[in-house]
Amino acid sequence: MTGAIIGDIVGSRFEFYNRKSKDFTLFTPRCFFTDDTVMTLAVAKALNEYEAVTDYEAFKRTLIKSMHEVGNYYPNCGYGGRFYSWIRNRETAPYNSYGNGSAMRVSPVGWYAKSLEETERLAKATADITHNHSEGIKGAVSVAGAVYLARTGSTMDEIRNYVSRFYKIDFTLDEIRPIYGFYETCQDSVPQAFEAFFKSESFEDAVRNAISIGGDSDTIAAITGSVAEAFYGIDAGLRETAESYLDERLLKIYKEFNKKTEVK
Ligand SMILES: [Mg+2]
């Protein structure tokens, strides 16, 4: 989960000013948290309320409530237009989205669940409430599944194999970097985020890869960072720097979730 938050904060200043290079300062005073961090923590807040999820319909209602509550504290954090109206009007029906929001907010599920099967089921539930299009669900399930596998000791090849069930990745970062534009759909940004992880040598390298292709930088880096954290871990210094960007309300959710899932 911290990996998503770091990716979001590092990518925040590049979303509308892409930097197609791996050479940049990770954290500057111009960085800030955006919707990716806020919604990731809204998912964590819903999970904080359960020792174990058995009633998935009840969990969805809890999550909708959490997203409305946390989301409305941050009306200007960068939501897509349709999603913001869902938050603002406290809508409860899904709207068949396949935006990458379902993938950027799902990482807590991979830390919370006790099995891959539970991870996938919970991930689908988090997508269902808004992003119930098959591509929206696929984005959430594949990212949460990869997080679960990475944190439970799977190798890079095993994770790549798992992801290939969802996406055919037939491009390299170097190939797409000159032409890749701003895409907010799961199908046009989740595979790219995975490739940034597959070609990495460390957590930081993965995030730099994600930024370097441009596009929806904060969200792509949040997705890449989700999986990279689970695979490599994150240095305490980097973690503390990211935490310094959060406010008290978000930090409270963050700390409670980490305590619950025993993430240091
Ligand atoms: Mg964002």
Notes on the protein architecture:
The protein has 264 residues and is mostly helical. It has one domain: Orthogonal Bundle (ADP-ribosylglycohydrolase fold), CATH 1.10.4080. Helix content is 60%, strand content 0%. The protein contains 15 helices and no strands. α2 crosses α3, α2 crosses α15 and α8 runs antiparallel to α9. It is globular, with a radius of gyration of 16 Å. The model has no long low-confidence stretch (mean pLDDT 97).
SSE blueprint and pairings:
Elements: H1 2-11, H2 35-48, H3 56-73, H4 81-88, H5 101-104, H6 107-112, H7 116-128, H8 134-151, H9 156-163, H10 173-176, H11 190-198, H12 203-212, H13 217-232, H14 236-243, H15 248-260
Helix pairs in contact: 1-2, 1-13, 2-3, 2-15, 3-4, 3-7, 7-8, 8-9, 8-13, 11-12, 11-13, 12-13
Bound molecules: magnesium ion.
Residues 34-36, 78, 218-219 line the site of magnesium ion (MG).
Q: Any idea what the shape is?
A: globular
- The CATH architecture name reads Orthogonal Bundle
CATH class category label: Mainly Alpha
Low-pLDDT parts are none
Number of domains: 1
Outline the biggest β-sheet: none
